[in-house]
Structure formats: C-alpha cells, structure tokens
What does this fold into?
Amino acid sequence: MPALTPKLGLRLLGLGLLTVLLQVSAISQVTIAGTNADLTPLVVMSVGLLCGSVLGAVFGFVAGLFVDMALLQTLGLSSLVYIVCGYGAGRIRELRDPQAGVTPLAVGAIATGVATIGFSLMNFLLGVDAPVSFLLLREIVTTILVNTLIAMPLYALVRRWLLPVLPDDPRRRRRRAYTTGGLSPLSRA
Amino acid sequence: MYDKTVRRRRAVLALLVASSLILLTAYFGESTSGGLHSVQRGVLQVVSPVQEGASRALKPFRDFFGWAGDTISAKGKVNSLTKERNQLYKDLVNERGATAENVRLQHLLDLDGSGLAAYKPITARVIGSSPTLWYATIVIDKGSSAGLRVDMPVIAADENSGALVGRVTNVTGDAAQVTLITDHTVAVPARVVADPHNNKPPRNTAQSPTGDVQTEVGQPNDLILQYTTRNDDIRPGDSIVSAGLCSSRVQGIYPPDLPIGKVTAVQDPGTDAQKVHVHPLVNMRRIQFVQVLSKRVNGNKPSTCLR
It folds into this structure.
C-alpha cells in the first residue's frame, strides 16, 4: 500500500476537484440513453485500485464532500457511499491483486452499482415523500452500463495521472528489467 | 506488523464512516441557516466562478453530444411531427384571428399585455447540475447580488417550448441552487386546461380540475398529477398549468397559469385513484438558461381569487 506523500496528496486533491468540476459542469448535462455518466464512483474506484483501501476510502470521502458542497446536497451522503466504493476497490487490489486487463471494467461496474443503489437506499432511509417508480431500476442499470463503457479509458487516465508519484510497482519493475536487457531470475538460476 | 496495518486500516475506515454519519446527522438536524449550510453556501460562493468558467469552456463538448442525441431521436420523430405540423397550421389560422381580437380587447381593458414582464424576470445561465438520479437540482450564475431570494419561481425554455421548471432553494452572493419540479421534494399546485380538440365524448371544457404535480422517482420525464377526483375528466393532450394559491394567510410560491406540461396518459380514469401522467414541456436535463421571477404579482393568487 503506497504511503500518502505530499506529492500524491496534491495529485489526489487535484484529481478530486477536477472530477467534480467536470461532472457538475459538463457530464451531468450530457444525456446518454436517457441518463448521464457518473465519473465520481469510477475515479474513486480507480484510486482504490491504484492506491489501496485506505487511500481509496479517504479519497472517496473527500470526493463525496466536494460533490455535496458543489451541489448543496445533503452533506455526508455521497461521502458515505463513495467510502464504500474506494475501500472496496482497494481491498480487491490488496486481497486478489487482479492482473486481468478488464479488472477496471468489472470493478467500475460494481462501484457504480454500489454508488447508485447505495444512494437510493440512503434516500429511502432518510424518507421520500414522492412515489418511487420501478423505472428507477432501469435508470440505475443504464447508468451502470454507461459507466462500464467509460471505466477502462477513465482508469487509464487516472493511472497516467498518478503513476509518476506512486511507488514503483514490483511487477512493472520486473517487466522493465526484462525488456531493457536485464536477466530473468530464472535464467540466473 | 501485519496486525498494526490491519488495525490502522480499520481505524481509518471507522473514522471516515463516523465522520460521514456525524455530518449527515448534523446537516439534517440543523436549519437552513445553520453552520454546515452556511459553510456549504460559502464553498459554492468560492467555487461558482470556477464552475461558470468550466461550464462555458465545456459548452462545445455538451453541444456536440446534444447534437448527436438530437439527430438520432429526430429521425424517429419525423413522421409524427409532420402530421402534427399540418394540424398546427390549421390551428394557427384560427388562432391568429382570435389573437388579433384578444389584443384589441386587452387594449380596451388597459391590461398589461407583457405577461411575465410584471414578474421582473432575471435571466441566468446554468453552471452546474446534479448527476444523481435522486437530486434534480441545477446551479445558476446569479445570486443574492442580482436580487435572487429563496423560493422564487424559475422558468426556462428549450428549443420546443418554455415552462415552469422549479424554484430557488439556496442563494449565495453570485450563485443559486434551483430545485427542479422533477425533484422528489417538490410539489406544484396545478390545474388542468382542457384540450379543445379532444372533446369526444363531449365534456365541459370550462371545468378546470386541480391537483399537485409531483415527480415519480426514477422517471424524470414523467410527472404525476395527484389528488384529482373521480369527477375530473382529464384526457391525454390536456395542458397542465400552475394554479397559484388562493389563501389569505399563505402566499403561493408559483404564479398562476405558468405552463408545466401535457397530459400523456391517465391510468384508472374515473376513479379517485386515477393517475395522471404529465410530460414536462421542458427537457430538464438540457436547460442552459433560466429566468427567475423575482417579483410576486397579487401574491401569486389566481385571478378567480381576486374577484
């Protein structure tokens, strides 16, 4: 698990601010299949996958706080939901260390599902005066699908942004050693 | 070492969850003038210029996606719109005669024909909107410095028509939050204006049933007119307008006769449980500019109460 260095902290802060700004000012107003993409759970998931559960949860908390502040929503609601997304993604990395290229896609879909369903549950718990349509489920499914489509490129962007300040990944180091002419541990033996 | 890491991880998680719950509870427990609400407004005050800049910079991006979506949906609408256009041409000829007569009568009665100008509308640009399915809110670039106050009604127009879209729910110096009528916390007193072309079987078109327009969570393009009775003859095509409020004690938020939407279907008609589906006239996800009605006229009472 990478430690929170000042450089990493600054990059994460910038990433959080940029994500919320982009989401609120542009993405929310672009309708795809009757709904809109939600970048925040995907970015939180990416940070969880890259930085681990603790930083994922902290980033989720801060990103949720930004969203609630920028939109004057119930404070703490988004934070609670995104903590689960960030922590969950981080735990997947720590426990399974998934190598497959489609990991961000699957984890992105799960994170969006957790965020949208969690948000709905929280709103139910807080009390809803209006009738609730079953079509809410359709909207949730559409949002998950749309987010799944953009999960991979978004993960790649977040990775590119954070990579210079992340501690060197042992897998990456090993790969670089082979490609730059270094000997494989097997051939040395 | 491992135990220490696990303990630290769990402690951080517990701390974050506890912080969220404390924030949530405190926010719910305090009034709108409370500390957390003030902090939130302060942050919006600081962020709104950045948000406005970002909104303007990202407009081409939004427009591109909007254009692509419009092109796809327009292809499917061509036939039905052609029929509707032909019908509207016929109506227009009749309406022009009526309009000319109406203008003459208005001059005779010395009425203000400017309509909404009496409400002193303030035009504002949308600089942000909520991404969640649960909150239908937008942020606009005008605030208390432009004369905006909480509970002012907001209207907007898209490429098709203009209508009531919500009310101001939070104001800072240079920005304000508008809660749209598609938010689950909003209910608008409304009345039905019968469609004169839909008179088979005949009905009393002067009858104007009333109810509350509210959203159904999960269906932002389908509002519900609630609290109608079995005697209310409401049909698809009827228009829904705001009703105003006839009360000497309470002032209504919404002025009367602002268009809201059109009736698309009535479930279980002729029963007390009839469910009237209303399609909002304005596409709430595509609003770019709004007008905030900054002045109340006659306490927002309908003309029938003033007699």
Remarks:
- Chain A touches chain B through 60 residues (CB under 8 Å).
- DSSP finds eight helices and no strands in chain A.
- Residues 27 and 37 of chain A are 7 Å apart (CA to CA).
